[in-house]
Amino acid sequence: MDARAEMLTLGELARRADIALGPVRISPSTRVIQGPAGEASLEPRAMQVLVVLADAAGAVVTRDDLFRRCWGAAVVGDDSLNRAVADVRRAVRAAGGDTLEIETVPRTGYRLLAA
């Protein structure tokens, strides 16, 4: 099985190196996004979603893949994913990450775009 298809655990998140996307720095280990307007913290699940999207390097990540990578075998509804994506969007805006956008691909999933 492809390692990217497995669940991204909180332990793996803590060992991840920071990710720089333009003026925005994502720190998975501390669950902080830093940008021109300051910094914002994310809950662990929202950071998992952000890291999975960043790992995809602009490719679309399906909702099923996000559920598998971020929730594993737990059975959760669409609201859980929608809430996590909304939290990421809110944190990116708060940090001044105007160059980052999470695009919704209707009936498919999401992708992270960095200008």
Helix content: 25-40%
Structural class: alpha+beta
| General shape | globular
Succession of helices and strands: HEEEEHEHHEE
Q: Give the biggest sheet.
A: 4 strands, antiparallel
Provide a count of the helices: 4
Strand content: 25-35%
CA-based gyration radius: 13 Å
Number of strands: 7
Low-confidence stretches: none
Biggest sheet: strand arrangement: 1-2-3-4
N-C termini distance: 32 Å
Mean pLDDT: 93
How would you describe what is shown here?
This protein has 115 residues and is α+β, with helices and mostly antiparallel strands. The protein has helices at residues 10-15, 44-55, 63-71, 78-94; strands spanning 19-21, 24-27, 32-35, 38-41, 61-62, 100-105, 109-114. The model has no long low-confidence stretch (mean pLDDT 93).
Short description:
By secondary structure, the chain is α+β, with helices and mostly antiparallel strands.
Topology record:
Blueprint: H1 10-15, E1 19-21, E2 24-27, E3 32-35, E4 38-41, H2 44-55, E5 61-62, H3 63-71, H4 78-94, E6 100-105, E7 109-114
Antiparallel strand pairs: 1-2, 2-3, 3-4, 5-7, 6-7
Q: Keywords, please?
A:
115 residues; alpha+beta; 3-stranded antiparallel β-sheet; 4 helices
